[in-house]
Amino acid sequence: MSERRRCAWAEASDNYRAYHDNEWGVAVHEDRLLFEFLVLEGAQAGLSWITILNKRENYRRAFENFDVKKVAAFDEAKLAELLADPGLVRNRRKLASAVQNAQAFIRVQEEFGSFDSYLWRFVDGQPVVGRWQHLSEVPVSTPEALALSRDLKRRGFNFVGPTICYSYMQAVGLVDDHLESCWCASRRLSVLT
Q: Which long-range contacts (CB under 8 A, 24 or more apart) does 65-69 make?
């Protein structure tokens, strides 16, 4: 354990610490990375996040570094190849969902100019900052996550229920749920002022 005080969940492994310290709750505005997290959050459904973090480089390789146009063009042969890849979560529905979501992602980009422009509307362009003292206070969903989930589903996305959407919002910084005791909470002061 390092001398930095973190959200307790982040102390489980080096991968968790690096993700927590450098990515979780940090605002993302790059569409490629927004797509990456959308695929990874869908893959995580029913599994632990550390499982996905440990497979992340395999996903980057298999999903063409999350080039949304390439993923949108994946066919049945490519899906069969992905299903045989031991470095991925080999769930046909989740893998097919990534392709379906890539196609829907492109439609959103065409309508809004970028997925970033579309996504950040759900929090009025500013991160929602939790002021939590204990992990038990952090919600698993919010009205904003529910609204995002409903809209994504309406636009043809799947594996985007409210809980997945809230995790996604935390991952890409629409929500900053670092506990007040975490060193990352002090980081937000320099960003918000």
A: 65/32, 66/32, 66/33, 66/35, 66/36, 66/39, 67/32, 68/31, 68/32, 68/35, 68/102, 68/105, 68/106, 68/109, 69/102, 69/106
